[in-house]
């Protein structure tokens, strides 16, 4: 486990975004003070990346989804009207351009193990790691929409546990390609002998598994990190096991610091059981931070944002995630009148968690439609962030309400206070993203399962 006597490092901060119109806080794209409809404009993204670097963010984390949210009302129409993660562009294609626009910012992108054979994806990872000088990260996901399976030509979405079995094999194939195919000294660049690389030091990968077959060498020479930083989000039993074996950073959606502590301790204990160190995994809690110069201003901003929240957009999003059509629940019905025996767990949790049983279902849904909002002056927000750090959280995954407004407020108003409190770094470390996040070497540690594929 981690050393309790060690000095506390500042929190790490990721900006949570997506290459689409409406990511999480649905309905805000209609506002005049957000650039969400300019998501196809590269300048919008480069300006955001520079703002994040000015605010000492560790990384821009780009979410992604394959498929459409078509469970709500039995079609994708609501998602299309709301711009709810459709249209959506490939996040990986932003990485190289944003690396050119910045010097230190990490660049994480999401891709499902169902999307592409690992042989080709390994080349994409190495290419991006080269172009970013070691600042790229991959968020490992397994997909959860039936529409994704249809679009990818599968007979159906594999069951939950099978998707994680695929992920285990997929990542193992990647480790073989990225870590074991090219020896460390395979590239010679010998001009006199006209030998760029030594064929004897480049090895074919021979993999015959349940889901994947590979017979050949990795196509790219070793990049600064070889294997990029590995992000993962999953709170199920299989998700936690996968994280304990493979992840370097885990996203949390805990409802309280105490809940976060429970998950952090659980996954770290599992990692130690697999021979890893507790500190090999960082944990990022998802929050929305709303900064005001006074408490009254912050509350006014929060109320204004909530007025723009689209309940239909949020309901369509959650319906797809849960494979449960929330249109069957009346938004205007007081939660005290909803029959909890007739609805599934998520709806029941909304009903039971309502502070006032006279609230309508729509009001409760609106209250839950946010990624843990914290509104206040910078000092109050710093107090709240300190609570999360004290619970064992290593970083914050900051969801936006308006872009770049949420991130500009962080850089201009919140960052100076956090730096004074020791909650945010005052300078970037040199080196790769792994060096910056962990303060150690560029490569995965020897305790990681990828290391067993290394030669020599």
UniProtKB/TrEMBL annotation:
Q: Note the Pfam families from the entry.
A: Bac_luciferase
Domain Luciferase-like per the UniProt entry, residue ranges: 33-394
> What UniProt keywords apply to this chain's record, in alphabetical order?
Flavoprotein, FMN, Monooxygenase, Oxidoreductase
Q: Is Amino-acid biosynthesis one of the keywords?
A: no
The record's listing under SUPFAM superfamilies reads: Bacterial luciferase-like (SSF51679)
Q: Which family does it belong to?
A: Belongs to the NtaA/SnaA/DszA monooxygenase family.
Q: What is this protein called?
A: LLM class flavin-dependent oxidoreductase
Species the sequence originates in: Streptomyces koelreuteriae
């Amino acid at each position: 486990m981690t050393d309790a006597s060690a000095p506390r490092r500042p929190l790490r901060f990721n900006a949570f975004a997506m290459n689409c119109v409406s990511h999480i806080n649905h309905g805000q794209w209609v506002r005049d003070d957000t650039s969400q409809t300019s998501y196809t404009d590269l300048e919008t993204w480069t300006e955001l990346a520079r703002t994040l670097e000015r605010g000492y963010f560790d990384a821009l984390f780009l979410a992604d989804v394959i498929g459409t949210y078509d469970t709500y009302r039995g079609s994708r129409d609501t998602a299309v009207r709301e711009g709810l993660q459709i249209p959506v562009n490939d996040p990986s294609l932003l990485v190289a351009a944003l690396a050119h626009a910045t010097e230190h910012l990490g660049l994480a992108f999401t891709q499902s193990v169902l999307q592409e054979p690992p042989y080709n994806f390994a080349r994409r990872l190495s290419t991006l790691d080269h172009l970013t000088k070691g600042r790229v990260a991959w968020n490992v996901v397994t997909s959860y929409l039936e529409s994704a399976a249809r679009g990818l030509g599968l007979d159906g979405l594999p069951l939950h546990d099978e998707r994680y079995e695929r992920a285990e094999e997929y990542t193992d194939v990647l480790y073989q390609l990225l870590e074991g195919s090219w020896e460390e000294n395979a590239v010679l660049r010998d001009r006199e002998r006209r030998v760029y690389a030594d064929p004897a030091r480049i090895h074919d990968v021979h993999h015959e598994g349940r889901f994947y077959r590979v017979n050949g060498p990795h196509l790219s020479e070793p990049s600064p990190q070889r294997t990029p930083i590995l992000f993962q989000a999953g709170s199920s039993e299989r998700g936690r096991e996968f994280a304990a074996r493979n992840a370097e950073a885990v996203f949390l959606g805990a409802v309280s610091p105490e809940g976060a502590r429970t998950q952090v301790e659980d996954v770290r204990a599992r990692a130690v059981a697999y021979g890893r160190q507790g500190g090999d995994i960082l944990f990022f809690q998802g929050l929305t931070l709303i900064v005001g110069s006074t408490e009254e201003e912050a509350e006014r901003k929060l109320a204004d944002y909530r007025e723009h929240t689209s309940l239909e957009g949020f309901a369509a999003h959650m319906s797809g995630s849960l494979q449960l059509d929330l249109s069957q629940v009346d938004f205007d019905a007081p939660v005290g009148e909803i029959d909890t025996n007739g609805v599934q767990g998520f709806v029941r949790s909304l009903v039971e968690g309502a502070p006032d049983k006279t609230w309508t279902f729509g009001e409760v849904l609106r209250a839950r439609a946010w990624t843990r909002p914290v509104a206040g002056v910078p000092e109050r927000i710093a107090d709240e962030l300190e609570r999360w750090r004290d619970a064992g959280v290593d970083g914050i995954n900051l969801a936006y309400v308006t872009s770049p407004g949420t991130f500009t407020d962080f850089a201009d108003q919140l960052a100076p206070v956090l730096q004074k409190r020791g909650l945010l770094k005052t300078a970037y470390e040199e080196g790769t993203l792994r060096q910056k996040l962990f303060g150690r070497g560029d490569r995965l540690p020897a305790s990681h399962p990828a290391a067993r594929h290394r030669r020599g």
